[in-house]
Design goal:
The protein is mainly α and 175 residues long. It is built from four helices and two strands, in the order ααααββ. It folds into two domains: 1-72; 93-161, Arc Repressor Mutant, subunit A.
């Protein structure tokens, strides 16, 4: 019987060592998780601050422009820049070049009386490969433009040229 009891004690010791290893791993992962959450919080705050600052800057620029009755030229947009909400008098040049091309294609197609275009058709009109990645990129940009009032999104999911003012979200919100 002593050998059976010895085997059980040996297995218990092995299991206890494994539990301790796992506890150490959990503690290490908890530290990694905490660091990742802190980084995420910092990024969210930075984005919210940037959106708030840009909204305040845009409001000041609009008030200044309206007060002086002048046109203020914005710096050239760069790829990856945000899409501002459309408003009367806002030139297409405030959009990044990739975003400018989509309304341009739709304006051309509308003048040719083709009607609304799907993302795949816009992608082909932009002389891009009609592979899923390219089509989804164009769809994402077109949806963003539609959300900001630069395009019209039809119920069918197709996009058409047209502008409409949109309500600017509250600068204090985190959405």
């Amino acid at each position: 019987m002593a050998s059976v009891l010895g085997m059980l004690e040996e297995r218990e010791t092995t299991a206890r060592a494994r539990v301790e290893e796992l506890r150490e791993e959990v503690a290490r992962l908890a530290g990694v998780l905490e660091a990742a959450e802190i980084e995420l919080d910092r990024r969210v705050i930075a984005r919210e601050e940037l959106v708030e600052a840009l909204a305040a800057s845009a409001a000041e620029t609009t008030a200044l422009t309206e007060a002086k009755g002048e046109t203020v030229f914005s710096p050239a947009p760069v790829p990856g820049s945000i899409v501002p909400p459309w408003r009367e008098g806002l030139p297409m040049t405030v959009l990044a070049p990739d975003h400018q091309r989509i309304p341009g294609v739709l304006d051309e197609q509308q003048s040719a009386v083709q009607g609304p275009l799907k993302a795949r058709e816009i992608t082909a009109s932009l002389s891009l490969e009609t592979v899923s990645a390219k089509v989804e990129g164009v769809r994402s940009k077109a949806r963003r433009l539609a959300e900001r009032g630069w395009l019209l999104l039809e119920a069918s999911g197709a996009f058409s040229a047209g502008r409409r003012p949109v309500a600017v979200p509250d600068a204090g919100s985190s959405a």
